[in-house]
Amino acid sequence: MTSLGLQSDGCRLGFGDIEEALAVHGLVLRGGFNFATDEAPPLGLSGAPAKSVLLVGQAGAAPWPHFLRWREQQPSTITNPLDSWSRQVIGDVAEAFGARAVSPSDKPYLPFQRWAMRAEGLKPSPLGILMHPQYGLWHAYRGALLFEDEIALPEHGEAVHLCDACVEKPCLKSCPVDAYSRAGFAYQACLAHVRGGNGEPCRSGGCLDRNACPYGTEYRYPPDVQAFHMAAFADP
Description:
Helices cover 32% and strands 18% of the residues. It is an alpha+beta fold. The protein has 2 domains: 5-161, no CATH class; 166-234, no CATH class. The strands form 4 sheets. A 4-stranded antiparallel β-sheet has the order 3-4-8-5, with helices on both faces. A two-stranded antiparallel ribbon has the order 1-2. Strands 6-7 form a two-stranded antiparallel sheet. The two termini are 36 Å apart.
């Protein structure tokens, strides 16, 4: 995306400038698109309807050391620290480039998964996480930048969906309580297991089904990162 640009306040800004501002925090641009004329997009910075959106996220655990340094300076009682860090970082970048920052946890909820599928041409895995042809299941979307100008973006085809070539589907066979199946996610069964006496492998090393996926393993989150996310799931 570095060769493209966008129009903001009459100035031509390179995507490379935004990418560099995000990279300082281990974050990356994850694609974007222009809203169609018949859509009802969220509002931009001035209160007018946004015309375009850029998704911001991570590949692997690159933001983790940046987040930990920030967290050391915060009160120990801070709630949802990763969400708070993401809001602050993406908000600062949005301010610098004349955009409005939005988060997946904003209410009313914005359709982040649909946006991500549209921006990168991805499809959900059997676990519901979007499958990326390079990162596998080890990526996330932390926020988005809404602009009131259209962005010149290249056309992209549908990404290769690695799950289509995966015959064994180990992601549906590794959980001891069959939390994931073709019928969907058994939330209560998963939660009870993680909180229970036999849930230590999941609490300390992450979801067994997710870790069983053979794709994108070089981007797999380290155990401490997975333990952090699992603790947030088990004790929201």
